[in-house]
Amino acid sequence: MPNDILVIVEYKDGGVRKVSLELLSRAKEMTSESSSTLYAGIIGYDVKGIVETVQAFADKVISVDSAVLKDYRWDTYVSAAEQLVRKFNPSMIFGGSTVTGKDLFPRLAARLKTAIISDAVGIEWDNGGPRIRKPLYGGKIISWLTCKEGVVPVITFRPNSFAITNRSLNGEVIEESLEIVPDSRFSTLNIERGGMQKVDLQESDFIICGGRGMKGPENFQILEEIADIMKGRVAASRAVVDSKWRDYDDQVGKSGKTVSPKVYVGCGVSGALHHTMGMDTSKVIVAVNSDPNAPIFSYADYGVVGDLFEILPVLRDELIKAKKEI
Ligand SMILES: Cc1cc2nc3c(=O)[nH]c(=O)nc-3n(C[C@H](O)[C@H](O)[C@H](O)COP(=O)(O)OP(=O)(O)OC[C@H]3O[C@@H](n4cnc5c(N)ncnc54)[C@H](O)[C@@H]3O)c2cc1C
Fold first, then answer.
1. Closest CA to 259 of 20, 93, 103, 96
2. Do 212 and 271 lie in a common domain?
3. CA–CA distance from 124 to each of 113, 127, 155, 184, 218 (Å)?
4. 187, part of any domain
Protein backbone atom coordinates (compact mmCIF):
# COMPACT_ATOMS: atom_id res chain seq x y z
CA MET A 1 0.00 0.00 0.00
CA PRO A 2 1.48 3.39 -0.90
CA ASN A 3 2.17 5.72 2.01
CA ASP A 4 -0.01 8.54 0.70
CA ILE A 5 -0.91 11.24 3.21
CA LEU A 6 -4.01 13.42 3.23
CA VAL A 7 -3.78 16.76 5.03
CA ILE A 8 -7.12 18.39 5.75
CA VAL A 9 -6.38 22.09 5.29
CA GLU A 10 -7.70 24.75 7.63
CA TYR A 11 -8.06 28.35 6.58
CA LYS A 12 -9.31 31.55 8.09
CA ASP A 13 -10.21 34.98 6.72
CA GLY A 14 -9.23 33.96 3.19
CA GLY A 15 -5.77 32.68 4.17
CA VAL A 16 -4.41 29.19 4.82
CA ARG A 17 -3.65 28.67 8.49
CA LYS A 18 0.02 28.40 9.36
CA VAL A 19 -0.50 25.02 11.02
CA SER A 20 -1.78 23.56 7.73
CA LEU A 21 1.28 24.79 5.85
CA GLU A 22 3.45 23.22 8.57
CA LEU A 23 1.65 19.89 8.20
CA LEU A 24 1.85 20.01 4.41
CA SER A 25 5.58 20.71 4.66
CA ARG A 26 6.27 17.76 6.97
CA ALA A 27 3.93 15.48 5.04
CA LYS A 28 5.71 16.36 1.79
CA GLU A 29 9.06 15.38 3.33
CA MET A 30 7.55 12.07 4.37
CA THR A 31 5.84 11.29 1.07
CA SER A 32 9.03 12.18 -0.80
CA GLU A 33 10.97 9.71 1.38
CA SER A 34 8.45 6.97 0.61
CA SER A 35 7.78 7.91 -3.05
CA SER A 36 4.10 8.42 -2.38
CA THR A 37 1.56 11.17 -2.90
CA LEU A 38 0.64 14.10 -0.71
CA TYR A 39 -3.02 15.08 -0.97
CA ALA A 40 -4.35 18.33 0.45
CA GLY A 41 -8.09 18.31 1.14
CA ILE A 42 -9.82 21.68 1.05
CA ILE A 43 -13.41 21.68 2.24
CA GLY A 44 -15.52 24.83 2.10
CA TYR A 45 -17.19 27.37 -0.14
CA ASP A 46 -15.50 29.70 -2.61
CA VAL A 47 -12.11 28.23 -1.83
CA LYS A 48 -10.37 29.01 -5.15
CA GLY A 49 -7.81 31.31 -3.50
CA ILE A 50 -7.03 28.71 -0.84
CA VAL A 51 -6.60 26.03 -3.50
CA GLU A 52 -4.11 28.26 -5.38
CA THR A 53 -2.01 28.80 -2.25
CA VAL A 54 -2.00 25.12 -1.35
CA GLN A 55 -1.01 24.01 -4.86
CA ALA A 56 2.56 25.09 -4.04
CA PHE A 57 2.68 22.64 -1.12
CA ALA A 58 0.99 19.43 -2.29
CA ASP A 59 1.09 16.93 -5.16
CA LYS A 60 -2.69 16.88 -5.47
CA VAL A 61 -5.17 19.39 -4.13
CA ILE A 62 -8.70 18.09 -3.69
CA SER A 63 -11.24 20.87 -3.63
CA VAL A 64 -14.73 20.27 -2.24
CA ASP A 65 -16.39 23.59 -2.95
CA SER A 66 -20.07 23.83 -2.12
CA ALA A 67 -22.48 26.41 -0.71
CA VAL A 68 -23.55 23.86 1.87
CA LEU A 69 -20.02 24.10 3.31
CA LYS A 70 -20.03 27.88 3.68
CA ASP A 71 -19.74 27.83 7.47
CA TYR A 72 -18.01 25.16 9.52
CA ARG A 73 -20.45 22.53 10.83
CA TRP A 74 -19.29 19.21 12.17
CA ASP A 75 -21.89 17.23 10.25
CA THR A 76 -21.15 18.56 6.76
CA TYR A 77 -17.37 18.79 7.19
CA VAL A 78 -17.08 15.29 8.67
CA SER A 79 -19.19 13.93 5.83
CA ALA A 80 -16.95 15.61 3.21
CA ALA A 81 -13.72 14.51 4.93
CA GLU A 82 -14.97 10.94 5.31
CA GLN A 83 -15.84 10.73 1.62
CA LEU A 84 -12.38 12.03 0.67
CA VAL A 85 -10.64 9.44 2.83
CA ARG A 86 -12.74 6.62 1.41
CA LYS A 87 -12.12 7.73 -2.15
CA PHE A 88 -8.39 8.57 -2.03
CA ASN A 89 -7.28 5.88 0.45
CA PRO A 90 -4.43 7.67 2.24
CA SER A 91 -2.28 5.78 4.74
CA MET A 92 -2.66 8.65 7.25
CA ILE A 93 -4.78 11.73 7.72
CA PHE A 94 -3.18 14.85 9.23
CA GLY A 95 -4.97 17.80 10.81
CA GLY A 96 -4.21 20.70 13.11
CA SER A 97 -4.77 20.44 16.85
CA THR A 98 -6.79 23.63 16.73
CA VAL A 99 -10.22 24.53 18.08
CA THR A 100 -11.86 23.35 14.86
CA GLY A 101 -9.52 20.36 14.59
CA LYS A 102 -10.46 19.21 18.07
CA ASP A 103 -14.11 19.22 16.98
CA LEU A 104 -13.66 17.68 13.55
CA PHE A 105 -11.00 14.99 13.76
CA PRO A 106 -12.26 12.81 16.63
CA ARG A 107 -15.63 12.69 14.84
CA LEU A 108 -13.91 11.80 11.58
CA ALA A 109 -11.95 9.00 13.27
CA ALA A 110 -15.16 7.66 14.83
CA ARG A 111 -16.91 7.76 11.46
CA LEU A 112 -14.01 5.89 9.86
CA LYS A 113 -13.84 3.51 12.83
CA THR A 114 -10.13 4.16 13.07
CA ALA A 115 -7.55 5.36 15.60
CA ILE A 116 -6.95 8.99 16.49
CA ILE A 117 -3.70 10.29 17.91
CA SER A 118 -4.21 13.85 19.05
CA ASP A 119 -1.85 16.64 20.03
CA ALA A 120 1.23 15.07 18.49
CA VAL A 121 4.39 17.12 17.97
CA GLY A 122 6.46 14.94 15.66
CA ILE A 123 6.33 12.08 13.18
CA GLU A 124 8.74 10.02 11.15
CA TRP A 125 8.83 6.78 9.22
CA ASP A 126 10.00 3.71 11.09
CA ASN A 127 10.17 0.41 9.21
CA GLY A 128 7.56 1.58 6.74
CA GLY A 129 5.06 2.73 9.37
CA PRO A 130 4.65 5.99 11.27
CA ARG A 131 6.39 6.72 14.57
CA ILE A 132 4.51 9.52 16.27
CA ARG A 133 5.84 11.77 19.05
CA LYS A 134 3.32 12.90 21.65
CA PRO A 135 4.03 14.57 24.99
CA LEU A 136 2.18 13.35 28.08
CA TYR A 137 1.70 14.72 31.58
CA GLY A 138 2.55 18.28 30.68
CA GLY A 139 5.65 17.25 28.78
CA LYS A 140 7.13 15.30 31.67
CA ILE A 141 7.02 12.22 29.45
CA ILE A 142 7.45 11.97 25.70
CA SER A 143 5.65 8.98 24.24
CA TRP A 144 6.33 7.42 20.85
CA LEU A 145 3.37 5.71 19.24
CA THR A 146 2.87 3.55 16.24
CA CYS A 147 -0.12 1.90 14.58
CA LYS A 148 -0.93 -1.66 13.69
CA GLU A 149 -0.36 -2.48 10.05
CA GLY A 150 -3.36 -1.54 7.96
CA VAL A 151 -4.72 1.03 10.42
CA VAL A 152 -5.23 4.44 8.82
CA PRO A 153 -4.76 6.85 11.73
CA VAL A 154 -6.11 10.36 12.04
CA ILE A 155 -3.30 12.40 13.62
CA THR A 156 -3.61 15.94 14.90
CA PHE A 157 -0.51 18.03 15.49
CA ARG A 158 0.07 21.05 17.64
CA PRO A 159 0.71 24.28 15.74
CA ASN A 160 4.42 25.16 15.46
CA SER A 161 5.51 21.52 15.51
CA PHE A 162 7.16 21.76 12.07
CA ALA A 163 8.89 24.35 9.89
CA ILE A 164 7.20 25.58 6.72
CA THR A 165 8.99 24.74 3.47
CA ASN A 166 7.49 25.98 0.25
CA ARG A 167 8.66 23.67 -2.50
CA SER A 168 6.90 25.66 -5.21
CA LEU A 169 5.04 22.60 -6.39
CA ASN A 170 2.15 23.00 -8.77
CA GLY A 171 -0.25 20.43 -7.35
CA GLU A 172 -2.87 18.99 -9.65
CA VAL A 173 -6.32 20.27 -8.69
CA ILE A 174 -9.05 17.67 -8.34
CA GLU A 175 -12.55 19.08 -8.02
CA GLU A 176 -14.83 16.75 -6.12
CA SER A 177 -18.55 17.28 -6.01
CA LEU A 178 -19.82 15.23 -3.12
CA GLU A 179 -23.27 14.59 -1.85
CA ILE A 180 -23.39 16.35 1.50
CA VAL A 181 -26.66 16.39 3.36
CA PRO A 182 -26.70 18.58 6.48
CA ASP A 183 -28.13 17.07 9.64
CA SER A 184 -31.71 18.36 9.58
CA ARG A 185 -32.04 18.33 13.35
CA PHE A 186 -30.27 21.67 13.76
CA SER A 187 -29.50 24.74 11.71
CA THR A 188 -27.21 27.72 12.16
CA LEU A 189 -29.18 30.90 12.81
CA ASN A 190 -26.35 33.35 12.97
CA ILE A 191 -22.61 33.48 13.53
CA GLU A 192 -21.19 36.40 15.44
CA ARG A 193 -17.50 37.06 15.58
CA GLY A 194 -15.89 37.54 18.97
CA GLY A 195 -13.38 40.34 19.62
CA MET A 196 -10.81 40.52 16.83
CA GLN A 197 -7.34 39.54 17.98
CA LYS A 198 -4.26 40.58 16.07
CA VAL A 199 -2.64 37.16 15.87
CA ASP A 200 -4.24 33.79 16.46
CA LEU A 201 -3.03 32.53 19.84
CA GLN A 202 -2.13 29.09 18.54
CA GLU A 203 -0.18 30.50 15.63
CA SER A 204 1.65 33.21 17.50
CA ASP A 205 5.44 32.90 17.66
CA PHE A 206 5.56 34.93 20.87
CA ILE A 207 3.19 34.47 23.80
CA ILE A 208 3.30 36.31 27.09
CA CYS A 209 0.99 34.66 29.58
CA GLY A 210 -0.37 36.22 32.74
CA GLY A 211 -1.34 34.16 35.77
CA ARG A 212 -3.04 34.96 39.04
CA GLY A 213 0.18 36.70 40.09
CA MET A 214 -0.86 39.59 37.78
CA LYS A 215 -3.29 40.49 40.62
CA GLY A 216 -6.00 42.05 38.43
CA PRO A 217 -7.22 42.68 34.86
CA GLU A 218 -5.88 46.24 34.79
CA ASN A 219 -2.31 44.95 35.12
CA PHE A 220 -2.49 43.05 31.82
CA GLN A 221 -1.84 46.33 29.96
CA ILE A 222 1.92 45.85 30.29
CA LEU A 223 1.62 42.35 28.82
CA GLU A 224 -0.31 43.86 25.89
CA GLU A 225 2.48 46.38 25.36
CA ILE A 226 5.15 43.67 25.36
CA ALA A 227 3.06 41.48 23.04
CA ASP A 228 2.67 44.46 20.67
CA ILE A 229 6.41 45.06 20.56
CA MET A 230 7.01 41.38 19.83
CA LYS A 231 4.03 41.11 17.43
CA GLY A 232 2.70 38.33 19.62
CA ARG A 233 -0.25 37.58 21.83
CA VAL A 234 -1.24 37.77 25.48
CA ALA A 235 -2.47 34.52 27.01
CA ALA A 236 -3.83 33.65 30.43
CA SER A 237 -4.03 30.83 32.93
CA ARG A 238 -7.36 29.34 33.88
CA ALA A 239 -7.25 31.09 37.28
CA VAL A 240 -7.23 34.38 35.36
CA VAL A 241 -10.02 33.37 33.00
CA ASP A 242 -12.14 32.00 35.85
CA SER A 243 -11.72 35.35 37.61
CA LYS A 244 -13.05 37.02 34.42
CA TRP A 245 -9.90 39.10 34.01
CA ARG A 246 -9.46 37.77 30.45
CA ASP A 247 -11.58 35.97 27.85
CA TYR A 248 -11.65 32.21 27.59
CA ASP A 249 -10.17 32.63 24.11
CA ASP A 250 -6.86 33.50 25.83
CA GLN A 251 -6.70 30.42 28.04
CA VAL A 252 -3.75 28.07 27.67
CA GLY A 253 -3.83 24.60 29.15
CA LYS A 254 -5.72 21.35 29.36
CA SER A 255 -9.13 22.97 29.17
CA GLY A 256 -7.90 25.84 26.99
CA LYS A 257 -5.62 26.02 23.98
CA THR A 258 -2.47 24.10 23.27
CA VAL A 259 0.27 26.43 22.14
CA SER A 260 3.80 25.88 20.97
CA PRO A 261 5.31 29.29 20.21
CA LYS A 262 8.97 30.08 19.64
CA VAL A 263 8.93 31.98 22.93
CA TYR A 264 6.51 31.62 25.85
CA VAL A 265 6.88 33.97 28.83
CA GLY A 266 4.87 33.04 31.93
CA CYS A 267 4.34 35.90 34.36
CA GLY A 268 2.89 35.06 37.76
CA VAL A 269 1.94 31.60 36.49
CA SER A 270 2.66 28.81 38.98
CA GLY A 271 3.08 26.10 36.33
CA ALA A 272 0.37 23.68 37.45
CA LEU A 273 0.22 20.53 35.33
CA HIS A 274 -3.10 21.52 33.77
CA HIS A 275 -1.45 24.69 32.51
CA THR A 276 1.87 23.25 31.37
CA MET A 277 0.06 20.56 29.35
CA GLY A 278 -0.87 23.38 26.99
CA MET A 279 2.54 25.05 26.60
CA ASP A 280 5.31 22.58 27.41
CA THR A 281 6.37 22.18 23.77
CA SER A 282 7.13 25.89 23.41
CA LYS A 283 10.61 26.24 21.95
CA VAL A 284 11.91 28.62 24.66
CA ILE A 285 10.14 29.00 27.99
CA VAL A 286 10.78 32.00 30.22
CA ALA A 287 9.24 32.29 33.69
CA VAL A 288 8.91 35.28 35.97
CA ASN A 289 7.77 34.30 39.44
CA SER A 290 8.48 35.54 42.96
CA ASP A 291 8.47 32.01 44.35
CA PRO A 292 11.75 30.20 43.58
CA ASN A 293 9.97 26.87 44.14
CA ALA A 294 7.20 27.52 41.61
CA PRO A 295 6.84 24.42 39.37
CA ILE A 296 7.05 26.59 36.23
CA PHE A 297 10.80 26.87 36.82
CA SER A 298 11.23 23.16 36.15
CA TYR A 299 9.95 23.77 32.60
CA ALA A 300 11.73 27.08 32.03
CA ASP A 301 14.82 27.58 29.90
CA TYR A 302 15.25 30.98 31.55
CA GLY A 303 13.81 31.90 34.94
CA VAL A 304 13.62 35.21 36.77
CA VAL A 305 12.86 34.98 40.49
CA GLY A 306 11.36 38.30 41.45
CA ASP A 307 8.37 40.61 41.50
CA LEU A 308 6.83 40.82 38.05
CA PHE A 309 5.71 44.38 38.72
CA GLU A 310 9.38 45.39 38.89
CA ILE A 311 10.63 43.10 36.14
CA LEU A 312 8.05 43.62 33.37
CA PRO A 313 8.54 47.41 32.97
CA VAL A 314 12.29 46.82 32.63
CA LEU A 315 11.68 44.07 30.06
CA ARG A 316 9.33 46.33 28.07
CA ASP A 317 11.82 49.23 28.06
CA GLU A 318 14.71 46.98 27.05
CA LEU A 319 12.67 45.52 24.19
CA ILE A 320 11.79 49.00 22.94
CA LYS A 321 15.49 49.94 23.07
CA ALA A 322 16.55 46.74 21.32
CA LYS A 323 13.95 47.29 18.57
CA LYS A 324 15.27 50.80 17.95
CA GLU A 325 18.80 49.47 17.57
CA ILE A 326 17.79 46.93 14.89
C1 LIG B 1 -9.79 19.71 35.04
C2 LIG B 1 -8.93 20.93 35.18
C3 LIG B 1 -8.57 21.61 34.03
C4 LIG B 1 -7.75 22.73 34.13
N5 LIG B 1 -7.39 23.39 32.99
C6 LIG B 1 -6.54 24.44 33.08
C7 LIG B 1 -6.11 25.14 31.90
O8 LIG B 1 -6.53 24.85 30.79
N9 LIG B 1 -5.23 26.14 32.07
C10 LIG B 1 -4.74 26.54 33.27
O11 LIG B 1 -3.94 27.50 33.34
N12 LIG B 1 -5.15 25.92 34.39
C13 LIG B 1 -6.05 24.90 34.33
N14 LIG B 1 -6.48 24.31 35.48
C15 LIG B 1 -6.13 24.94 36.75
C16 LIG B 1 -4.71 24.65 37.19
O17 LIG B 1 -4.68 23.43 37.87
C18 LIG B 1 -4.20 25.79 38.13
O19 LIG B 1 -5.10 25.97 39.18
C20 LIG B 1 -4.02 27.14 37.41
O21 LIG B 1 -3.25 26.95 36.23
C22 LIG B 1 -3.33 28.13 38.31
O23 LIG B 1 -3.26 29.36 37.68
P24 LIG B 1 -2.09 30.39 38.05
O25 LIG B 1 -0.77 29.74 37.85
O26 LIG B 1 -2.38 31.63 37.31
O27 LIG B 1 -2.39 30.70 39.58
P28 LIG B 1 -1.65 30.27 40.90
O29 LIG B 1 -1.45 28.80 40.96
O30 LIG B 1 -2.37 30.93 42.01
O31 LIG B 1 -0.20 30.90 40.76
C32 LIG B 1 0.10 32.27 40.84
C33 LIG B 1 1.60 32.42 40.78
O34 LIG B 1 1.94 33.79 40.76
C35 LIG B 1 3.10 33.97 41.53
N36 LIG B 1 3.13 35.40 41.94
C37 LIG B 1 2.28 36.03 42.80
N38 LIG B 1 2.61 37.32 42.88
C39 LIG B 1 3.68 37.52 42.06
C40 LIG B 1 4.45 38.64 41.73
N41 LIG B 1 4.20 39.87 42.23
N42 LIG B 1 5.50 38.50 40.88
C43 LIG B 1 5.78 37.27 40.35
N44 LIG B 1 5.07 36.17 40.63
C45 LIG B 1 4.02 36.29 41.47
C46 LIG B 1 2.97 33.01 42.70
O47 LIG B 1 4.24 32.70 43.25
C48 LIG B 1 2.32 31.81 42.01
O49 LIG B 1 3.29 30.87 41.56
C50 LIG B 1 -7.29 23.19 35.41
C51 LIG B 1 -7.67 22.48 36.55
C52 LIG B 1 -8.48 21.38 36.44
C53 LIG B 1 -8.87 20.65 37.69
1. 96
2. yes
3. 24, 10, 13, 41, 46
4. no
The boundaries of the domain holding residue 285 are 201-325
Task: Give me ligand 1 centre to Cα 1, in Å.
Answer: 48
Q: What's the 239 CA to ligand 1 centre distance in angstroms?
A: 6
Tell me if the pTM is above 0.85. no
The residues of the chain scoring below 50 in pLDDT are none
Let me know whether 139 and 266 are in one domain.
no
Considering the domain architecture, whether residues 147 and 218 belong to the same structural domain is answered as no
Same domain, 169 and 302: no
pLDDT of residue 33: 94
Residue 108: inside a domain: yes
In terms of domains, do 54 and 161 share one?
A: yes
**DSSP label of 238:** H
Q: Specify the pLDDT at position 105.
A: 98
Classify residue 185: in a domain, yes or no: no
CATH number at residue 119: 3.40.50.620
What pLDDT sits at residue 196?
A: 57
Q: Could you tell me how far CA 57 lies from the centroid of its own chain?
A: 18
CA–centroid distance, residue 135 to ligand 1 (Å): 21
Contact partners, residue 228, CB within 8 Å, separation at least 6: none
Which ligand 1 atom is at minimum distance from the Cα of 270? 49
Q: In this structure, are 224 and 148 located in the same domain?
A: no
Cα 137 to ligand 1 centre (Å): 16
- Do residues 158 and 55 both lie within one domain? yes
Average pLDDT, the chain: 94
Exposure of 164 by Cβ count < 10 A (0-12 exposed, 13-18 middle, 19+ buried)? middle
Instruction: Kindly list the protein residues whose Cβ atom lies closer than 6 A to any atom of ligand 1.
Output: 211-213, 237-240, 251-256, 268-270, 272, 274-275, 278, 288-291, 294, 307-309
Which residue puts its alpha carbon closest to atom 41 of ligand 1? 307
Ligand 1 centroid to Cα of residue 48, in Å, is: 44
Give the chain's domain count.
Answer: 2
Strand pairing category for 60-65 and 172-175: parallel
